[in-house]
Amino acid sequence: MSEVRFALSVPNFAEPSELVELGVRAERAGWHGVLLWDHLFGGPGFAVPMADPWVVLGALAVRTERIRLGTAITPLARRRPQKVARESVSVDRLSVGRMVLGVGLGSPAEEYTAFHESADPHVRSAKLDEALEVLTGLWSGEPFDHHGPHYQVAGAQFLPEPLQRPRIPIWTACATLNDKTLARAARWDGVVLAKILDGAGIGELSVEELSRSIRDITRRRGSLEGFDVAVLNGGIPSETTLAGFAEVGATWVLVTGWMDQLHELAAAGPVA
Asked: Collapsing DSSP states into helix, strand and coil, what is residue 72?
């Protein structure tokens, strides 16, 4: 049975100062992590304030001392990997090695199409995989070249390197539990497993669904040593569900909701 830690998965739908204060309160209350969503705007019919997650993470890195910080998730296909490399290393060093980078395809489609970028899932998937190669190459601190269908790099050397070794942990999102997403997760350092309901709501992944996904990833990797399994959950799971998550190998529960609910949870603390 694994030890399960608790993080808040926070929409970046707020003023930057509100998100920083929420993260500070969460650390005081005993949460183990605060991970921010990475959205640009809400698409038609959802006009709300949004903060840049990387600016907020930089502030949290110097206002907190213990909690894990990061994104859940950054749609890497719509961000330049060289910029994310700089941002993530800056947060890692400011936080003294507490950064985790969650990545995925991202939604809604309008965050791509509004800027005349392809929202085709196959294109986003290919760009995500290639961008991860570029990102980790730039993290190496060595001169780096890359020549791919979507990204070109010629002799770039990024210093300083991340504090964490062998790298900043990369968690990949698996909201659609298929062969490609699980295979991608197995190549990196962790997975964010979620059940997305119609209308983009967050459901509760069953212990059986979680167990199947973990078995698949374990088969591909050979073991789960050094690998995190994070379960995104709409609220704190019941004691029975939580025990089941731990039994099959989950290491994190990412508790999400809307801002009013998350403010209450941040102050109250996790269940363990």
From this structure: strand
CB 99 within 8 A of CB 70: yes
**C-alpha 19: how far from chain center:** 16
CA atoms within 13 A on the CB side of 247: 11
- pLDDT tens readout for residues 240-265: 999 999 999 999 999 999 999 999 99
Report yes or no on whether pTM surpasses 0.70.
Answer: yes
The closest of 15, 21, 50, 47 to 34, measured between CA atoms, is 21
Could you give the CA distance from residue 210 to residue 13 in angstroms, rounded to a whole number?
29
**Which H helix or E strand runs over 262?**
helix 259-268
Inter-residue contact 192 to 230 (CB < 8 Å):
yes
Check whether 239 has a pLDDT greater than 70: yes
Tokens, residue 210: 């979680």
For domain 5-268, the CATH class is alpha beta
Helices (H), 47-166: 53-63, 81-94, 110-113, 121-139
Total residue length of the chain = 272
Tokens describing residue 253: 């529960």
